[in-house]
Amino acid sequence: MKKLLAAAAVVLMLSGCSSTKDWAATGGSRADGVVRLSFVHGAFEKPVLNESQAVALASKRCATWGYSGAEAFGGTTSQCNMPGGLGGCNQFIVTKEYQCLGQGNGQQAGVYVESVPAEEKQIDNRNRWF
Questions:
Q1: Each residue's pLDDT tens digit, 59-83
Q2: pLDDT tens column, 106-115
Q3: All residues at 6 or more sequence positions from 64 whose CB lies less than 8 Å from its CB, including other chains
Q4: Who wins on pLDDT, 81 or 87?
Q5: Strand, coil or helix: what is 38?
Q6: Which residues are CB-neighbours of 108 under 8 A, at least 6 positions away?
Q7: CA separation (Å) from 119 to 102, 116, 122, 123, 129?
Q8: End-to-end CA distance of the chain
Q9: Inter-CA distances, 112 with 54, 105, 106, 109, 115, Å
Q10: C-alpha of 128 from chain center
Q11: What is the model's pTM?
């Protein structure tokens, strides 16, 4: 009976437990219109994710840059954040990239955009040296 209980305990430990994880903004590029979201989980955790929370967070970040929304690029990348013994890993950081949608706002992005009247856009070739 003790062997059965010990085996059941080992199976429970190895199967891990599900835990809800929230995405957090961890980087990106305003100029490229890319937002990086990440979460951390332990070696034996089985993360439960809410994709709509991730899209809402990425869209909010993109909106601050003048974009209209965001969509996921595709898959995720997982990187060992805390190495464990015997070559294993105790903690992982998982990252997903989102592309901002729309044109964005160049002036908010720190890009100077000068408005030139149409009559000044004409090039005067008489005073040009080639």
A1: 999 999 999 999 998 889 999 989 9
A2: 544 444 334 4
A3: 108
A4: 81
A5: strand
A6: 64, 65, 66
A7: 30, 8, 6, 9, 22
A8: 96
A9: 31, 11, 7, 9, 10
A10: 49
A11: 0.66
